[in-house]
Each structure stands twice: as C-alpha cells, then as structure tokens.
C-alpha cells in the first residue's frame, strides 16, 4: 500500500503572537534610545540635575583625593576649588572646571547672599547649603546636607 506524505495545513508566515512580540521589542528599543538621548529642552530641571552631578563629583573627588574640595555657585556659574598649602586653588581641568549657568538661568541664594558654598571634606561630609535655579518661572532647588547627600527639588 502506498503511503502518502503528510499534508501541512499551516501556511507560511508569522502568527499574531509572533508579530506582537516583535512590536513590543521594537517599542522597548525605541523607548531606550529616547531615554538615553541628551535632552536639549530639559530646562532648569536638567540644569539642576547637571549641577547636582557636578556636586557629587566634587564630593567623590574630596574622598578619593583625600583633600578638601568646594564648589562655589554665584550669578555667573559654578567654580571648583581645592585646598593646597593652606590656600584655595581653582580646579581648572576635567569635569570640575568652571561652568557658567545657561543663558536665561539665574541663581537665588539663602538670606540675601550672593553665592552658595558647598564644601566637602575627605570623609565625604559636607557644609550644608542650598541654591535655587530659576528660568522661565520654573524653579529647581539643589540642597546638600551635612552628610553629603544631594537632593534636587523642582517645582
């Protein structure tokens, strides 16, 4: 008796489930790309986060370099210094160089002061201070407490 080959009733192509899985993967990849792109229009919140990262870098530099490091924020921007030979010397190279505030951003300080000083010692402890960045009616406060914790609060 001759045997015939089994017939396949399944047509070539993708199932609905396979197509949905591919769409989910493409969507996740697209979201990842969008989240990692630098934001050009992030405004004052982005600038405050950048300042907070620079303060964290200054704290880490104090601990890793076993030296005092301070960041001074004034109307012009942020400058970093370290104590050498009993005197404060500017840090001019690398990530801790002087950085101006973005155009249109102004800094507000506590109790009518003209600047804020964030000092970090070799143990990572800090001089508590705060500064508020303001642009287009949006405010973002950057605070550092005595333990060296840095907080950004945008409103």
From TrEMBL:
Pfam families: GspH, N_methyl. The chain crosses the membrane at residues 12-37. One of its GO terms (cellular component) is type II protein secretion system complex. One of its GO terms (biological process) is protein secretion by the type II secretion system. It is found in: Cell inner membrane. The keyword Transmembrane applies. Belongs to the GSP H family. This is Type II secretion system protein H. It comes from Coralloluteibacterium stylophorae.
